Amino acid sequence: MITALLPIFFAVLLLGLPIFASLALAVFLAIEFFGATNPVIVPMRMFTGMNNFSLMAIPFFILAAELMRIGGLSDRLINLAKALVGWVPGGLAAATVLSCLFFGAISGSSPATVVAIGSIMFPALVAAGYDKRFAIGLIATAGTLGPIVPPSIALIIYGSVTGTSVGRLFAAGLLPAIVIASILIAYCIVFSSIKGYERAPFPSLRQILVAFKDAAWGLGLPVILLGGIYSGVFTPTESAAVACVYGLFVGMVVYRTINVTELVGTLRSSGLISATLLLITAGASAFSWLLAITGTPSQLAGEVLSWTDDPFQVMALFNVVMIVAGFFLDSASAIIVLSPLLQPIAAQVGVDPVHFGVITLINFSVGMITPPVGLNLFVAMAISKMSLQEVFKACLPLIGLMLLALIIITYIPWLSTWLPSLIY
């Protein structure tokens, strides 16, 4: 049955079915023709997969991100980033990366970060004389910081399917996100120094303080959320609802940039995005269930550990597997399908599940900027009016930097485990 499952899945995927339907149909057909179980269990498992308290956070975080985006927060965060790093060589490019880090701490989503920051910074970079390919490649890649820096929708999904503490995962993502952002900013500085791009004058203390003041409401959201989670005031799921109330208050009362019409449109678009993501989760949950009941994770663990039980080699193999999977699956589906398979094996060779979660997320973040299903590439295409081939070529050097960051974070575990160990 398992031998037939993957070929059926890829066959129906190539026929053009949506990913959630491909996952569910593959399970249904595998059971119908090769199993002894009644296939009516498939929709039951799909519902069970969605009936998870942690997953309730997803639609709330998506709505909160949309509210903060249309509320005018992007401009204020960009101005703050310019004040902090705009004076270095390639300061505008460095500010783009820092803006993505700031906005990612609010949205928890990679495409949302690319849209919010890229729609403003791409025209600004081009107008400042930066090469179009460099600009769009940087924006598409820096957008991957969205799911890595806490709070993160992808980490919530990983925690729900592996039973790992979402609070610990949120803490674990902070330092790796800073490492990736630092590598990208260093690249901006070196590239811009070689090209001779102009830099902004060093800001005065007053300009920095004004930028902080303007962006304070936006920066306050992750502080409130993470502070509330780690102090025990509310759970990660409840924090998502707090984020919605906060975003609505800031947009309608503080900044006064959201009216009732825009609010209705935002509710509609957030609902559609949430439904899409939860449908994928449902299909992938049925897929993962079939793998689990057939003992596939145990068999796979035995096969892998028969080759080697060296953590260095096992993690190198898993990184390759996850990067290749990221070419063909969106990050949510890939996390749900592969994490229950690979995480127990990683645990057997001594890899902390929180550390493995961060590694998993970085691998699938690389998949966001690789074809054929790299969503950031398509968002970047819409922003830049460039072809998929052009955007992907622009991302290639930055993909190399992401892989460098992946190697560093994989083999220096304390980057992921130090902060959670302090808090918990």
TrEMBL record:
It is a multi-pass membrane protein. Residues 8-415 form the TRAP C4-dicarboxylate transport system permease DctM subunit domain. The chain crosses the membrane at residues 50-72, 84-106, 112-130, 137-158, 170-194, 215-234, 240-258, 270-292, 357-383, 395-414. GO terms for molecular function: transmembrane transporter activity. Keywords: Cell inner membrane, Cell membrane, Membrane, Transmembrane, Transmembrane helix, Transport. It comes from the Bacteria. InterPro entries: DctM, TRAP_DctM. It is found in: Cell inner membrane. One of its GO terms (cellular component) is plasma membrane. Signal peptide: none annotated. The keyword Membrane applies. Part of the tripartite ATP-independent periplasmic (TRAP) transport system. The complex comprises the extracytoplasmic solute receptor protein and the two transmembrane proteins. Belongs to the TRAP transporter large permease family. This is TRAP transporter large permease protein.
